[in-house]
Write a structure and sequence with these properties.
- The protein is an alpha+beta fold.
- It folds into three domains: about 20-195, Beta-Lactamase (2-Layer Sandwich), CATH 3.30.450.40; about 205-305, Beta-Lactamase (2-Layer Sandwich); about 310-400, Helix Hairpins (Orthogonal Bundle).
- About 45% of the residues lie in helices and about 20% in strands.
- A five-stranded antiparallel beta sheet has the order 2-1-5-4-3. A five-stranded antiparallel beta sheet has the order 7-6-10-9-8.
- A hairpin with a 2-residue loop joins strand 6 and strand 7 (about 215-220).
- Helix 1 packs parallel to helix 5 (about 165-200) and helix 2 (about 40-55) packs antiparallel against helix 5.
- The longest helix is centred in the last third of the chain and has 45 residues, at about 305-350.
Length: about 400
């Protein structure tokens, strides 16, 4: 769409020269520099640049062109013109009859009159791009000896609409404009990278927090969910004391974190933490800091709920204990069964009246053996198993005792 925002409603004609005022020029440069921080995006910055330049130059027809060296193209992110609509991206830029291209290639400000524009197109054996202006002024946007693009003003009405001084002024402000655009682009790229990083962190299955001097400055949604809160605001800007059961746990953790980070650059430990409803749960905590001299200044912390892992470990421990009890019971039955069978046999012989003295001695011997077995069992603190017929294992009672075997 053709944009006449700056062409309409002006009381002075286009060929009326703007009064030169060095103080005004400085004020314009200050506005442009300030706009880098005050505008939300590049589009807003371009508009401020245009409006600011209107205070010192006639910018009824104005555009900003950016050069992509890899693509050999130029684009027009901002374009206000009385005649033409916003051009599409121009490819094969180095082989195109473009006055903007000449400014970028020659790395210097240039003036083109109508005849110059027509002659340039003839040299490339191409048609002119857009409506041919009576006078055209362009200045390169240079940053660190690199040409980023160009800013252009032009008039379709009179070849005397601008003078050489206007080109000098345009060139003097172009360097500041280039720097402002570069800074804003960097800000937007950084903001986009932050959004991407935040999305990655938000999708993490573990709790993640950015901590400053033991105060939560940012937490992800998993962190909120893990600790039973409803929103991030309940954790952010709160002391990390909120996740510890008492002040002692908080102090112990602080010392552990400080000592670990100052020596290894990271802290890695397990602790019981407290949820909003005051219930405790076991967690694995890892913290990293790139400032060993002041490790608490900024840290990135991850929190993993290990309740399930602990439950599995406990279940495994209980199974092993039960298995030990079962093996012990089998061994006890095996050892006690032998003297019991002997006692039973000798008792039957007594009832039959056969060699009573020897039978009584045998019964006493087996009873004594039972006593030894029970005493041995009462002293067992460690045990080992041995193979037993039937593809089973039983506890080796006689090999067990107060020391490991």
């Amino acid at each position: 769409m053709i944009n006449n925002r700056f062409a309409m409603g002006k009381s002075q004609s286009e060929n009326t020269k703007k009064k030169r005022d060095p103080g005004k020029t400085i004020e314009v440069l200050f506005k442009i520099s300030e706009a880098v921080s005050n505008t939300r995006n590049l589009d807003e910055l371009y508009k401020v640049i245009h409006e600011s330049l209107d205070e010192i130059l006639n910018v009824d027809n104005f555009f900003i062109a950016l050069h992509n060296k890899k693509r050999d193209s130029i684009i027009f992110p901002y374009h206000v013109d009385e005649k033409d609509e916003i051009p599409e991206e121009i490819f094969n830029f180095s082989k195109t009859a473009s006055s903007t291209g000449m400014v970028i290639k020659n790395r210097k400000p240039m003036i083109f009159y109508e005849k110059d524009i027509i002659r340039l197109a003839g040299q490339f054996k191409q048609k002119t791009i857009g409506t041919v202006s009576k006078i055209w002024l362009g200045a390169p946007l240079v940053i660190d000896d690199r040409v980023k693009g160009a800013i252009v003003i032009q008039s379709y009405k009179s070849p005397t609409a601008y003078e050489k001084n206007d080109l000098d002024l345009l060139n003097s402000v172009s360097q500041h404009i280039a720097l402002a655009i570069e800074r804003k682009e960097s800000d937007e790229k950084l903001a986009e990278q932050r959004k991407i990083l935040e999305k990655i962190l938000e999708s993490s299955p573990v709790g993640i927090a950015l901590v400053k001097n033991r105060v939560f400055k940012w937490v992800n949604n998993e962190m909120v969910k893990m600790f039973g809160y409803q929103s991030k605001s309940e954790l952010e800007n709160q002391s990390t004391r909120i996740i510890y059961y008492d002040i002692d746990d908080y102090d112990i953790a602080g010392k552990k974190i400080y000592n670990s980070i100052t020596t290894r650059g990271t802290a890695d430990y397990e602790s019981k933490l407290v949820k909003k409803d005051k219930t405790l749960f076991p967690a694995h905590i890892r913290l990293n800091s790139d400032n060993i001299s002041d490790p608490m200044a900024w840290t990135i912390a991850t929190f993993t709920d290990i309740s399930q892992r602990k439950a599995v470990e406990k279940e495994k421990y209980e199974r092993e204990r039960l298995q030990g009890v079962l093996e012990m019971a089998g061994a006890v039955c095996h050892e006690i069964n032998q003297p019991l069978q002997a006692i039973l046999g000798y008792s039957e012989l007594l009832l039959m009246g056969s060699d009573s003295d020897n039978n009584i001695k045998s019964i006493k011997f087996q009873a004594t053996r039972l006593g030894r077995i029970t005493r041995k069992l009462s002293n067992i603190t460690h045990y080992r198993t041995v193979d037993y017929p039937g593809n089973t294992k039983i506890v080796d009672i006689w090999g067990a005792g107060d020391t490991e075997h």
